[in-house]
Amino acid sequence: MATAAAGVAAALSPLSGCDYLSSTDCSATETSALLELAGQLKHGDRRIDLGNRVLGLIFTKASTRTRVSFQVAMARLGGQTVDLNPQVTQLGRGEPLEDTARVLSRYCDVLAVRTFAQQELMDYAHWASVPVINALTDLEHPCQALADFLTMQEAHGDLPGQTLAYVGDGNNVAHSLMLCGALLGVNVRIGCPEGFEPLPGVLEQARSLAQHGASIDVVTDPREAVQGAQAVYTDVWASMGQEAEQVQREQAFAGFCVDEALIRQASSNAIVLHCLPAHRGEEISPGVMEGSASRIFDQAENRLHAQQALLAAVMGGL
Ligand code: CP
Ligand code: NVA
Q: What structural domains and CATH numbers belong to the chain?
């Protein structure tokens, strides 16, 4: 066990002091090591005490899982969290980001930011002198992807060569699944209606990063996407900030519900994943959500373990 811990610590040492703004901020080796450490923390094989470090949470959008899992992860590392919701700080009254980021860096050891534009997150990272973590932007949700692939690994073992099918909007969650999946050697198939594809630049980036010959594909037929897949994943059709498009999107995504008929096209041992929150009867049927293939609540739990590993790595606590 000591050797395994030393191997993980060595693999993760380059992350000390680094930002995690995108799934691509970790190498393939580092991503695998984060999953290994997350598993060790989950099963009590590792205990890490960082000695009263402080995480600042700057969340411009709502959150249940990301917020609470970061808070609990930090508590388990012997630290604490301060909630810096822009509505209650001077940010909400127009204090510049560059001043806010520099001031908060004098109090906090790490910042997790949830916002709209990836550029705003990058601006925080530029001005902060402590590591900045992407807690979701419109472009990516890299912490989610770590938990997702940890869940897939728990269900099916070694990830290279497995296939994850994502059915729905080519959004932030899809982007991080493509990038993180590519690094881990997982084939990722995105099934989405025309006009809702992931960004071409992200597709190109994922393909260029792909390990172990993994393929990253985008198709417009949900049945083709899930064919033989070991995991079937979906997310809401209208993300935060897109509420006004809800009705139009419900029409565009007709036929893209992850239901019993669709998962019959996947591998017989396929698991079902959803980042949550879910809209039952839209992107996922109530039966699939609660069915025997669902690992959705394990996946939500794994946010805690994956982020605990990430926090320990960026704060150099291994
Ligand atoms: N999956 C996820 O990020 O959930 P929250 O929006 O509740 O944080
Ligand atoms: N794509 C969703 C994910 C929520 C966790 C959103 O951005 O709202």
A: 10-140+303-314 (3.40.50.1370), 144-299 (3.40.50.1370)
